[in-house]
Design brief:
It is a single chain. By secondary structure, the protein is α/β, with parallel strands linked by helices. About 35% of the residues lie in helices and about 25% in strands. The protein folds into three domains: about 70 residues, Methane Monooxygenase Hydroxylase, Chain G, domain 1, CATH 1.20.58; about 180 residues, P-loop containing nucleotide triphosphate hydrolases (Rossmann fold); about 70 residues, Beta-grasp domain (Ubiquitin-like (UB roll)), CATH 3.10.20.30. The strands form two sheets. Strands 1, 2, 3, 4, 5, 6, 7 and 8 form an eight-stranded mixed beta sheet that branches. α1 runs antiparallel to α2 and α2 packs antiparallel against α3. About 0% of the residues have low confidence.
Length: about 325
């Protein structure tokens, strides 16, 4: 017997597939249960959802118990991507997070203010990107959880103080120390996700360098030295978290660096929803989008209609058509 799932259920299921945290998954499953049609054809789906809900509630309880033992370095990914900030003490990481996101972080002019990861959501047009402030690193101080945190991130930002003569040595040490832990902080990787090379177990994390405090005395000279040594290997940006200089460009560059695209969907005869795009790796195709909307669509999709910069309005495209940023897609199954 067919399930005959309602649009309300499919919307709840979409919310579940986009959920990043256990709490979000619990709420989405509850919504799926409340909107699931009750008849013989949905009995199996109902049982599976009840089982999932029980498992997620166990995870919530486990997380609560661990929370009582102290803060964790595991930061659940939220939004369109996760970027970890790495740097020595007093490079301005916490002030950057405070200026760019909604995070409530402690900002002070003395070292080691940040003791545990502090995530915040940075808005870029119609999406949000997660930035994570991390405890400072030095040759004598490195929190054990730092490696796992960076290894799990989509990208990393090495933050240095352009007012500090030691900024060049700090970049060198950070790259070398993470390499010792088999984490390669590199400018480019095969995709927008970190991955493990099967030969030696090295995890590659796409990384760029931010020279903060670009208004400090001697900052321009130090920046030139950094560019001469690392400019061909890494994207190098500058900013002043104190004055706000360069922060607008930084937000845009972070989005571009993640190498992702936003794709909107619409139903036949309806206007597209331009408030909640699907975020996909650059190079994704129509069938990749279909699988994100609903897993069954990978098998049932016949064709799609496309509205975008590289297509005429309503153009019929196949399953393997490559999508571009801000495309609007109408899926036909």
């Amino acid at each position: 017997m067919p399930a005959n799932l309602t649009p309300q259920y499919l919307k709840a299921e979409q919310k579940f597939r986009a959920a990043q945290t256990t709490d979000e998954k619990v709420e989405a499953v509850k919504e799926m249960l409340s909107t699931l049609p009750k008849h013989k054809g949905t009995e199996k789906i109902y049982a599976e959802l009840k089982h999932k809900l029980a498992e997620f509630k166990k995870e919530q309880e486990t997380a609560r118990k661990k929370g009582k033992q102290g803060p964790s370095f595991k930061v659940p990914r939220e939004g369109a991507g996760q970027v970890a900030l790495i740097g020595y003490p007093n490079t301005g990481k916490s002030l950057l997070i405070s200026k760019l996101t909604d995070a409530n972080v402690q900002v002070a002019d003395y070292p080691f203010t940040t003791r545990f990861p502090a995530p915040g959501m940075m808005k870029y047009e119609d999406i949000q990107i997660q930035l994570v402030d991390t405890p400072p690193v030095t040759p004598t101080t490195m929190e054990p959880g730092m490696f796992d945190l960076v290894r799990a991130a989509d990208a990393a930002m090495i933050v240095v103080d352009l007012g500090d003569d030691a900024s060049l040595e700090q970049i060198e040490w950070i790259i070398g120390r993470f390499a010792e832990a088999k984490i390669a902080l590199v400018a480019l990787v095969a995709s927008n996700q970190c991955h493990t090379l099967p030969t030696d177990g090295v995890v590659t994390i796409r990384t760029f360098i931010l020279g903060n405090k670009d208004d400090a005395e001697g900052a321009a000279d130090r920046l030139e030295v950094i560019k001469s040594l690392y400019g061909e290997k890494y994207m190098i940006l500058t900013s002043s978290a104190e004055t706000g200089d360069g922060l607008g460009e930084l937000i845009k560059k972070i989005y571009q660096f993640l190498d992702i695209i936003r794709v909107y969907t619409k139903e036949p005869g309806q206007k597209p929803d331009l408030t909640a795009p699907y975020v996909l790796p650059r190079g994704s195709t129509v069938i990749d989008l279909a699988g994100r909307v609903h897993n069954d669509f990978r098998q049932t999709l016949k064709f799609a209609r496309l509205w975008g910069a590289n297509a005429y309005s309503g153009q019929s495209v196949g399953r393997e058509h490559m999508l571009n940023d801000k495309d609007v897609v109408e899926l036909h199954t």
